[in-house]
Design brief:
- The protein is α/β, with parallel strands linked by helices.
- It has two domains: about 25-260, Type I PLP-dependent aspartate aminotransferase-like (Major domain) (Aspartate Aminotransferase, domain 2); about 265-365, Aspartate Aminotransferase, domain 1.
- It has 13 helices and 14 strands.
- α2 packs across α10.
- The longest helix has 24 residues, at about 260-285.
- The relative contact order is 0.17.
Length: about 375
């Protein structure tokens, strides 16, 4: 019934899922009833192509953008797939950050475009090296996919000077930055940096967002933030013309959830919980491996000792009752990441995170050889 696969006896640090106890079951039921009363039959008929006005108005005020620059989607992955399908095809190149969200590779590859690693270092994509790469590409580089804020898997955020340089490069070269902004509201140590979209003034950047991380992934609800010309192209897609707005009933319920203040209360509550979970995992890992606490998001990106590989450690960890995602999965074809592991602190309670880290520590001496 659900995507998560429980393996008995295993405290799994691999899943980038919300902790089940943090999902707002009762609050969502209240919003569902309120939406049914407020919208009546209009909630259960075909929706407006870009999404229902009450949600677009609430979302535009929250994001500081215009309602005409928004299109409601079935989540961030859906938004990525739609944008990529419109902006790239078999004769094009899509550039991707390294490391980056590994499940995006398949979404982008479905366009038929060739995926290429963008030049990057410990701070993220290097704008100067990227400019050189764009000049040398035989096929046009149409998109650059990146998660610049509290990234998956690294937890890092792209420095402000690089954000500005990437936006300027996109605007003068015709490259579109596809900004995956899923983790923005999960900031634990001050404000999140400005989005690429905000820095761009809406030119050269398309932002995708979701309620999966802040409210619940089962809603399958997100948005695309783009120039009105691209929003118009999204509304002209055949399935939108045929079916109306995407996920209309859930979108109207979200408008009530947001307007009532329940969204703000819930995000504040889960932010505090995830901060506690982050701190618990960091404290438990540090006696065994060097690790920095990310300022936001859901993940620790941990460096292994010289000579110890992620693949070998994974087998040992699972024998000791824990698991993780090895670093190589976050790199497009080719080398990278064997000296890194991604640990998620989102899915388990603090006590379980501490025990999982203890098991990982016990596995380390057995993973050599």
């Amino acid at each position: 019934m659900i995507q998560f696969e429980h393996r008995p006896g295993l405290l799994d640090l691999g899943w980038g899922h919300p902790r089940p106890g943090l999902l707002p079951v009762e609050e969502w039921a209240t919003a569902t009833a309120a939406a049914a009363r407020e919208f009546g039959w209009r909630q259960l008929t075909y929706g407006y192509p870009t999404g229902p006005a009450p949600l677009l108005e609430w979302l535009s005020a929250r994001l500081g953008t215009e309602a005409g620059q928004l299109f409601v989607t079935g989540g961030a992955s859906h938004g990525m797939a739609l944008v990529a399908s419109l902006l790239a095809g078999p004769d094009d190149v899509i550039l991707v950050d390294s490391p980056t969200y590994h499940l995006a590779f398949r979404i982008l590859a479905d366009t038929g475009a060739r995926l290429v690693r963008a030049p990057a270092d410990a701070d993220g994509v290097d704008p100067d090296a990227l400019a050189g790469m764009l000049a040398a590409l035989r096929a046009p580089g149409k998109l650059l996919y990146l998660v610049p804020t509290f990234a998956n898997p690294t937890g890092r955020s792209l420095p402000l000077d690089r954000r500005r340089a990437l936006v300027a490069l996109a605007q003068r070269s015709g490259l579109t930055l596809l900004e995956d902004d899923n983790y923005r509201e999960l900031s634990y140590d001050g404000e999140a940096p400005p989005s690429l979209w905000d820095l761009s003034g809406g030119e050269g950047v398309v932002r995708v967002g979701t309620f999966s991380k802040t409210v619940a992934p089962g809603l399958r609800l997100g948005w695309v933030n783009a120039a009105p010309t691209l929003i118009a192209r999204l509304t002209e897609l055949g399935y939108v013309e045929s079916g109306g707005g995407v996920n209309h009933a859930v979108a109207t319920t979200m408008s009530c959830f947001g307007a009532s203040g329940a969204y703000d209360r819930h995000v504040a509550a889960v932010r505090a919980e995830y901060r506690e979970q982050r701190d618990a995992l960091v404290a438990a890992v540090r006696p065994h491996l060097p690790v920095a606490a990310p300022a936001g998001g859901w993940f620790l990106w941990v460096t292994l000792p010289p000579g110890l590989g992620a693949t070998r450690l994974l087998a040992a960890a699972e024998r000791h009752g824990t698991s993780f995602v090895p670093g190589p999965r976050f790199y497009l074809d080719g080398p990278g990441g064997e000296d890194r592991i991604r640990l998620s602190f989102s899915h388990l309670a603090a006590s379980d995170l501490t025990e999982a880290a203890t098991r990982l520590g016990a596995a380390l001496p057995t993973a050599w050889g």
